[in-house]
Design a protein that fits this description.
alpha/beta; eight-stranded mixed β-sheet; 9 helices; 21% strand
């Protein structure tokens, strides 16, 4: 198995585990949910699949369904996506359906939302949530971002939330986004990038990769890939520094290495990027 397939297997296993263990309203019942977590020390006393320290609160967003929010995002891409009624929206790495359901509230009954995810357990969870909500114009499809099961020139808007960093071949991923987007369409993607290279011990750790950190590119490289894919009017609409809790870092760094990592000044950043297909 090559490295690319190995990384995909890590992500599938980890996110499949999260989907199977998901509990209703878990975000509302813990200070490590997607709301205010100040003083919580998120991750302490929890299992290693808690990545909620990177997220933002969806409180007040129309269409938000707590059952679909597994605290796996690093932004709220729908906030700047300029989704209009009647649009076709494709959500990459749709998970349990959180962003797809928010997008559905914006496209209305005459629009369409397609969620794509490579984890069968997530597709099952999203379909379970969708069945409860009764949306006939929301569907969740099994597939990989590097080879999207979507026809050319379909999407008015593509959204994604903290998923592209998990894809081994990001050049191919953005080429696929370009392919499925209509002329004049656009994307809004929240993702994790860095200002400097991460220590090799973090980059090689499976837990760090599944936690959206090890697969992160340098910010400039990430934006260059988007430009090389052919997109125009690219802008970083939002940027926010992420602090990885020490208890998470202890999974793959010694105390001495953690101190060195903090002193090196490597910033891990959540960005929400907008771009258009001319």
């Amino acid at each position: 198995m090559d490295q690319s397939e190995s990384l995909k297997k890590i992500v599938k296993n980890k996110y499949g585990e999260i989907a199977k263990n998901a509990k209703k309203n878990s975000a509302a019942n813990t200070c490590c949910g997607s709301g205010d977590r100040s003083g919580c020390g998120c991750g302490q006393g929890t299992n290693s699949t808690d990545y909620s320290y990177v997220g933002e609160s969806y409180s007040g967003r129309v269409g938000y369904n707590p059952d679909a929010d597994l605290n796996l995002g690093c932004g709220i891409p729908t906030d700047i996506a300029n989704i209009k009624e009647g649009d076709t929206v494709v959500d990459l790495g749709s998970g349990a359906g959180n962003d797809a359901f928010v997008a559905r509230s914006l496209v209305g009954a005459n629009g369409r939302v397609i969620g794509i995810d490579m984890t069968e357990e997530m597709i099952n969870k999203a379909n379970e949530n969708n069945n409860k909500m009764g949306y006939s114009n929301v569907e969740f499809v099994f597939g990989e971002i590097e080879k999207l099961p979507v026809k050319d020139d379909l999407a008015d808007v593509v959204i994604s939330n903290c998923v592209l960093n998990l894809v081994p071949d990001k050049n191919k991923a953005f080429a696929e986004i370009y392919r499925v987007m209509k002329r004049g369409g656009h994307f809004s993607i929240s993702d994790i990038v860095t200002t400097e290279e991460l220590p090799s011990s973090i980059k090689s750790a499976a837990e760090a990769y599944a936690g959206c950190v090890a697969g992160a590119l340098l910010k400039d490289d990430y934006l260059r890939i988007i430009k090389d894919a052919g997109f125009v009017n690219i802008r970083v609409a939002k940027e926010r520094k992420i602090t990885i809790p020490d208890d998470m870092l202890q999974t793959f760094l010694s105390g001495e290495d953690i101190a060195a990592f903090r002193e090196d000044g490597v910033d891990i950043i959540s960005i929400t990027v907008y771009g258009e297909k001319s």
